[in-house]
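Regression report. Comparing outputs from two consecutive submissions.

Submission 1:
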Amino acid sequence: MSFPDLQTLHLYLTVHELGNVTHAAEHHGIAASSVTKRLHDLEEQYGVPLFTRHARGMIPTPAGDELARQARELLARANSIQGIMSEFVEGVRGVVRVHASTSIIIERLANAIAAFTRENPLIRIKLKERMSASIVHDVFDGRADIGLVAARVEIPPELTVYPYTTDDLRVIVAQDHPLADRGMVAFEELLDHDQVGIGDLSSLTVLLAEEAQRLNRAIRHSYRVETPEVARQMVAAGLGLAVLPASLIAPLQAVSVRAVPLSDAWARRDKRICVRDPSSLPVSASLFLAHILQ
């Protein structure tokens, strides 16, 4: 079975939208008989009627509606080819929309972006720091080309997922804290101590609250702050302990705090990359995806 050419699909969609062969022919500046023949050829090719003919016009059959849907997707993809290929005129260019969680940006993504833009100066990475659940929605809804998530969020099967890195949660405490000399500590033990909370709605805050609730306990917050840097200062001053990803602790650990790993299995987090459809990514986004997967 031969595939209909793009011009025939354009004509078909016009008839489908206008419901009239004559009007469609006028729209494209060709004879009505030519449009009629192409419609007949399509019906012969697929073996199903695409329209019900009436004196007042053409009414699509269910098969006709489905062909219209498929044709629109195909023509949209074909129209994007010109834009994609133009990226190669003076070297690949474009904008890649990347949404990522804080810990991933700090741990390695910032450096990855810097290296990528040095090699591809015509490509701009538009980075947004977002919560993991929001990142998944942004990719699914097309607001982001590439998402990098750290939390244990559900990713719909419609998205393609790649493993990125792993990280573990640790508790930072003052040097003289009772837990400072421990090699490892269970999260439940932390609930007996005052804690410095970081952000009210961050994915980590939500995770810790859920785990405390599962233990029929509550986190005893002495203070709430917005950033890991402020939390570290509060911890160093003896105002409580704080739980952070290991990747965020390394830049902070030099001043008056100790980091103790959590023994709980859920404290080890698999960070992931998600995209809608790798085959439909613009060239610029495909290049960046390949770069961060290295």
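Submission 2:
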Amino acid sequence: MKASLINVEVKENYLIHLTFSDGLEGDVDLSEHVGKGVFSKWSDYQHFRAARIGEFGELVWDGELDFCPDSLYMEVSGQSPEVYFQKPTEQHA
């Protein structure tokens, strides 16, 4: 993980505003998941509003459902996995 998730703000219409330790911030729209499979509990918006940062920096709901901070970072930044997980190259002076 490159940057830590440091703040979560639940907004209306299943949007979550995320802030990361490197200053990146933005909204993630999770509305497409509502009512499907493990996301069925989100049909009750109060359950969705209980989003928080978990013990390992993940976005969690009641310890039952979580999103990896790396995937959220890629969503907010628009980076592909190939770019996000690219190993730094050695630079010589």
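Expected: both submissions complete independently.
Actual: both completed, but the second showed a warning that disappeared on reload.
Relevant detail on submission 2: The first helix runs from residue 45 to 48.
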